Amino acid sequence: MSQLVTNRIKAHATRLRLPHLAASVDQLIARANADKMGYLDFLDLLLEEEHGVRDGRRFRAALRLSKLPHHKGIEEFDFSFQPNLDPRKIKDLAALSFVEAKANAAFLGPPGVGKTMLAVGLAVAACKAGFSIYFTTLDDMVRQLKEADAIGRLAAKLKTYTRPNVLVLDEVSCAPRGAEESRGRRSPPPVIAVTG
Fold it and tell me: Domain IstB-like ATP-binding, which positions (predicted)?
């Protein structure tokens, strides 16, 4: 391919806001020549590369906005740490059918058994699949909503928790309660709540 055509492709890619294509067209052309790609395969390569870069940026931005405490996926969970936990059930949850059904998933257990890590792992899987996510603790959510209500902004603040496809609500059983509230009541478990 002539340098004139290559320069024209770079200029078109820049105007069309395809920055990865504009920056890497020379390497992609070399790869296509080395692999003796046909026109359709070359076009597919160009579009696949650009899409991959954009999807990676979207994923990183979504993780930043999610407020997750870490970004470890389900595949990083050590199931030998919890031998009573059935890895197949967790992998079924990671297929995200509960998100599409707008259902809830709850993890029960004492502190320190990996409930938060599993919830975050599911949230990372949901983010990879293109769902929006938000992480908070029950205590922080209640405090934020009370503050918003006090200044007349409750409806706007509720959107923070209802707008994402997946809301990860952590430390539900650790929420502070008054003596009369906690007497004789069992605390609810940490949950992954899916909002519509």
Answer: 12-176
What is the 8-class DSSP label of residue 173? T
- Dmax over CA atoms of the chain, in Å, equals 80
Q: Is the pLDDT of residue 9 over 60?
A: yes
DSSP 52-121: HHHHHHHHHHHHHHHT-S----GGG--GGGSTTS-HHHHHHHHTTHHHHTT--EE----TTSSHHHHHHH
**Which fold would CATH assign to domain 74-194?**
Rossmann fold (3.40.50)
Is residue 86 a contact partner of residue 130, using CB atoms and an 8 Å limit? Answer: no
Whole-model pTM?
0.70
Q: What is the Cα–Cα distance from 39 to 119, expressed in whole angstroms?
A: 45
| The two three-digit tokens of residue 115, written as one number | 């409930």
Please report, for the chain, how many H helices and E strands are present, in that order.
9, 4
